[in-house]
């Protein structure tokens, strides 16, 4: 059960454009948004942020952005976020094996060097933002423009919104998505510290 009773969708018709946008992207409207509807301006702001971050005009591939979001969720330890981002990655046509292997991105053959640079950045930034080093940015710039880096950072930090939603959503909702139980099992088995498998300094 949700900790706060969600409003009925038909009772907030002024929010329908925002709820419909979420439904189109996720396939349903999560209870967290119907709870946030108690504060319409807040829901609108959160929804507009999500729409901006998921702008179809983004230059980076959607699959990469979903993997970055998934890595950030795992690094932060937010199971609600892991559930959503794992399903979003699946819906973006990322192979299930690749989603499952994101914790081993440094050594897994499923990832390119460009993807490893992005995931390494996401892992660190989601744990302790100022722990991202000049070397991390240099690695990103080998593969991405400044505009593309901003896109990736926005997906890494969008998890803050999902963490706010996790206070409202029910446990049943958090793990009802297709493939989420698989993602959850893998996360529990391969939970890693923020800087594990992140380059030479990780062995020091």
The dominant shape is: elongated
Mean pLDDT, as a whole number? 79
The stretches of 5 or more residues where confidence is low (pLDDT under 50) are: 170-204
Structural class based on helices, strands and sheet pairing: mainly alpha
Structure description:
This protein is an all-alpha fold. The protein has a domain at 62-162 and 184-194: AhpD-like (Up-down Bundle). It has helices at residues 16-26, 31-36, 40-53, 62-76, 79-91, 96-100, 113-127, 134-141, 146-157, 159-166, 171-174, 180-189. The termini are far apart.
Key words describing this protein structure:
single chain; 204 residues; mainly alpha; 12 helices; 59% helix
List the helices and strands and how they pair.
Elements: H1 16-26, H2 31-36, H3 40-53, H4 62-76, H5 79-91, H6 96-100, H7 113-127, H8 134-141, H9 146-157, H10 159-166, H11 171-174, H12 180-189
Helix pairs in contact: 1-3, 4-5, 4-7, 4-9, 5-12, 7-8, 7-9
